[in-house]
Amino acid sequence: MMDVKPLHNEQDYDWAIREVTRYFEAEPTPGTPDGDRFEVLSSLIKEYEDGHFSTPHGDPVDVLHFAIESMGKSQAELGNLIGRNRASEILNRIRPLTLDMIRTISKEWNIPIDALTAQYELARAYG
Description:
Layout: H1 10-21, H2 33-52, H3 60-70, H4 75-82, H5 84-91, H6 99-109
């Protein structure tokens, strides 16, 4: 029997995050008891986050700034993912995000891909 429960408050949410994080190293096989538990916990976490955390409605650069300021990320961490110079150029709107960068950031920082794919203005012509 699963020990999963509804997420009513931040304590419940923190518990669920700790529980689901244990599966990140080796995601369980779907259809197994651990796979079902992982799926249920992930769904509960998403529902809680959708109802309790506002997400920025800006362009992809605004989303990255939000992640850096509010999610405990840093420009250096972004640089580790996509390259130090590229991170600086993207945050300063000099270089556009590429599809590979978007996929990497989305996966590593758990940011929805659609939050990173909107068109946005660059500070100057890139080329």
